[in-house]
Amino acid sequence: MIDFGDLAAFTLHDVKNRLAVLASRAEAKGDRDTVHAVLEVAATLTRLLAWYKAEKGNLGIEIDARTPADLLTELTREVGPQNALTVSADLVDAPAIWFYDEALVRMVLLNALYNALRHARQRVLMAACVRTGWLEFSVRDDGPGYPAAMLGQPVAMQPLSREGTGLGLHLAGRVAALHSNAGEHGYVELGNDEGAVFRLMLPP
Prior knowledge:
The protein is of the alpha+beta class. It has 2 domains: 4-55; 64-202, Histidine kinase-like ATPase, C-terminal domain (Heat Shock Protein 90). The protein contains 5 helices and 9 strands; from the N terminus they run ααβαββαββαββββ. The strands form 3 sheets. It has a 5-stranded mixed sheet. A hairpin with a 2-residue loop joins strand 6 (180-181) and strand 7 (184-185). Helix 1 packs antiparallel against helix 2. It catalyses: ATP + protein L-histidine = ADP + protein N-phospho-L-histidine.
């Protein structure tokens, strides 16, 4: 017999497919606001599905050689046209390749990007670089920044909110930790620097 959790997961997957159809119709009509809203909801459902898999111990990881610059370029092209804010990527110091699960990392960065868009005043900047031998993906905005209470504590300790921000951070921490090498695990940093800065750190 199928349990409620699995039924919910199947239902979420079906809803995501229906949202994709709605987004396509809205895009054809030039309704940018609706496209943005629908894709953000779809991203939230993706996080819920990933969280469910993580809780059941089924969140697998497929690490392979990837190109960070290509990933950020794709996210910029996907999200940028959906809103009036400026979304850009700094790729000057991005490494040519790195080893990570692109699907999971993409989900984490997309969540951080949507969160930044909710709080930014004019712009959001993504970047990839190598810091102290680790790959750093960052998403920063020019908004009010993270509340002081969210800084200086592990992501796993962040409170869950009705908006799903906490869920996204918890999942980001899970995804980061799945990336490990020589006993070191990836992690997430939150900071403020003329706005909020989200950093996903992945080991070499």
